Amino acid sequence: MSTDTSSRSVTCQASPNIALIKYWGKRDEELILPDNDSLSITLDLTDMHSYTTVSTSPSMTCDTFYFEGVLQTKLSSRMQKVLGEVRRRAKDMQNQFVEIRSQNTFPASSGLASSASAYASLAIALTKLFNLDNPDATAAYLARIGSGSAIRSVYGGFVRWSSEGECLSSCVFPMEHWPDLRLIILIFNSSKKPVSSTDAMQRTRETSTLFSARLATVNDKIEKLIEAIRIKDFNTFAKIVMMDSSQFHAVCMDTYPPVIYLNEQSKHLIDLVHAYNETDENGAMKVAYTFDAGPNPFCFIREQHAEEFLRLLKYIYPTADNNVHKHVADSD
Ligand code: 2P0
């Protein structure tokens, strides 16, 4: 951070996260208050970060935003909302403008939502630049009003986003807690999703009758999943994660008009994983899938099975981008 009191600049980074128990539905669109708690893993990977630099100086005459080095013609309403909140909280920002420069070290086509890591890094940078009170909670709040799931990228490891009280997030376990847990991301299709998550979850709230049944089950699943993670019980972990993914997509299908994020390859992968899990002679689970609002599977697996499963994926899906083999945590 610059020591010049009139011109200042801060750069912060954050990583994407993948939900194990999905967030779907807002009870408050403006503040982005979720209908249910969610639980995720922040992908603390050396090559997947968003970086945001926020600068301010008396010579600036308006707020500006550069994405991947390109000046954007206008700030999105979400970004304006975040800056409005910072101005409300920071006395020394009332008459000052900012320049925001955001970039990702991973391509948008990687199948990972970059908005979570982008808003998390922006929120942390703004909190630092303007020295806002209660920095952890403030950064979480700012990230959330930018993009709901960004609130989980403010922390590393296993992160819970609460739907109660102030609806903030907290780290439940650091990533080092489960050193042999690995993640394989398979890219079947990297094109833009047919319906944005924001619009789709609103449509779900308005039309799905399964939605309320899902909400009634989420907290119990989260408690059971946290206990499974605590004792590193992969069988229970795998079952809960796969069932929540399928339930989320069933709710999307129950939305009218239906929101269909999975494709034929996704369904094929689901069958493949269950068949592969049957091959363990002790009946133990080897791998678990989860799908976000898209067709690309995120497969959790323990290190002992990772290479074998990756070979299988490369054989069965030779055209998919399956080189993305990431370690969630590295035991080295
Ligand atoms: C999640 N998703 O928990 C769920 C699972 C997609 C499927 O959070 O409107 O981009 O900004 O709050 O955060 C995607 O929703 O939506 C999401 P907004 P966001 O990761």
TrEMBL record:
Protein known as: Diphosphomevalonate decarboxylase
Gene Ontology CC terms, in alphabetical order: cytosol
Keywords: ATP-binding, Cholesterol biosynthesis, Cholesterol metabolism, Lipid biosynthesis, Lipid metabolism, Lyase, Nucleotide-binding, Steroid biosynthesis, Steroid metabolism, Sterol biosynthesis, Sterol metabolism
Key word Protein biosynthesis present: no
Taxon lineage: Eukaryota, Metazoa, Spiralia, Gnathifera, Rotifera
Enzyme class, spelled out: lyase
GO biological process, one term: cholesterol biosynthetic process
Reactions this protein catalyses: (R)-5-diphosphomevalonate + ATP = isopentenyl diphosphate + ADP + phosphate + CO2
Residue ranges occupied by any Diphosphomevalonate decarboxylase-like N-terminal domain in the UniProt entry: 14-166
Annotated GO MF terms: ATP binding; diphosphomevalonate decarboxylase activity
Native source organism of the sequence: Adineta ricciae
Superkingdom, natural source: Eukaryota
Classification via Pfam families: MDD_C (PF18376), MVD-like_N (PF22700)
